[in-house]
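Aim 2, interim progress: modelling of the protoporphyrin IX containing FE-bound target.
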Amino acid sequence: MEKLENVKAGAIDSVVFILDFQASIASGHLVHETKRFHDKYGPIVRLAPNELSFISPSAWQDIYGHRKRGHKEMTKNPIWAQPSPNGAFSLINCKEEDHARMWKPFVPAFSMRALKAQEEIIQGYVSMLMEKLKSRATSGDVVVDIKDYYNWTTFDIIGDLGFGEPFDCLQNEQYHQWVSFLFGHLIAGALLASVNFYPWIFKALLALVPKSAHQAALAHHAMSCDKAKRRMNLRTDRKDIFSHVLALNDEKGLTLPELEATAAIIILAGSESTSTMLTGTTNSLMRNPEKLSKLTDEVRSSFRKESNITLDALEQLTYLRAVFQEAFRLLPPVPTQIPRIVPPEGDTICGHFIPGNTFVGLPQYAAYRSTENFIHPSSFLPERWLPSDSPLFVPSSSDPAFDKTTFLNDNKGVVPPFSVGPRNCIGFNLAYAEMRLVLSRLLWNMDLEFPDTCGRKDDRLVFEEQKTYALWEREPFRAKLFWVR
Ligand code: HEM
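Predicted structure of the complex, ligand included:
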């Protein structure tokens, strides 16, 4: 690491440093600490003795991008990319040499063409969401925990689209037992990774990981295997995700244990990150009522009937697009660094030669909120994503002042929330489809505001203060609904 001696550490003394880093992972505050270090020390910081963090736009290509001739891929960090309880790797954490073989059968299932065929199913769940919220809003029981409704919707959609069976969360307005295992699984993953850093004391540290976290991870895996097996035995001509995969998979594709491990990832990735994004976006809008009303106006003036709100039609809504871009920037659903390792011979990142086997990553939360990359980084300003001659490019009364030149130097290229390169997100079309349909139909039908606190402690959710274990751990988000139709 001699060439990196001028890279500042998050903490100076090495023992304190290690403990600090592990404690940040285990306590769910690594994301906040990483941002603090970058704010203090600049665009490259040392997070742990062998771990560097970068927040400049070129780090995306240098760490995650397709390789140029003569450069090896920066591989997934095995501390985080562990096999499933059945010993197999899933698509998301498999080794680079296995990736193309495992990825190919999934590609058609996530294409735009497949998505068009799936729109009716997604719309069906969004209609059920509207019915449930309407019945709450019109029955006097108007304060809801909106993150639950989002989570139920995305979980039901991935159950149905992925495996041909919904989980009936929306129908019953209740969590399926599985959802509680999902977050337990993530916490277990983060805690296990934090102890994996120190293999020589792994066994002793392993004892500190709560039994409930291990059990949640095992239960999530067992249920996913069961779901995948049931889907494989189901005779149906529905065009769900597994129909494409099963049609293409052969002896050169995924093994059964790999398919089961990937089923577990699809359920987790396909539900948690999209509902997190919807929760974060709604929270940002409610905390900025003028932006909320600007988006509501765009949605209501664009559609005469709710049935006109289709994926094709939503493509035309410029403010909706800008709102999601800004919400991705302010509250990225994957806020931590996505961990990679520099190949043994070393390589260059952001103009610096980095020695082989160094752990590296770009933490989205720290990068997107840095003054190195954005002006007014903590403000929710969808306008920064609009052309300055757009009629919507007008500040709200509570915005910091801006004009046509204000955002010209923003590093917008630093925000690819689904990552880049060969391991980027396969589900981004599906995620965008769900986000657009849910938020636009919600705003078409109802007004939202924070409930009165009636003198009690202010319990309005501040999304970014929540803990993270790879994804955000979501706290209650109470919203008051007014049905306007
Ligand atoms: C807002 C929603 C979402 C965000 C922000 C997101 C973000 C990401 C990111 C950053 C990665 C790269 C991870 C890495 O390199 O280690 C990834 C990979 C992946 N995501 Fe998503 N995701 C979202 C929704 C979805 C959905 C809806 C699905 C599927 C139903 C999905 C399935 C996957 C899979 C299977 C991978 C691994 C791809 C591979 O390695 O080839 N994601 N996602």
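The longest helix spans residues 256-287. The pocket of protoporphyrin IX containing FE is lined by residues 91-92, 103, 158, 265-266, 269-270, 273-274, 277, 333-334, 338, 417-419, 423-427, 430-431 (CB under 6 Å).
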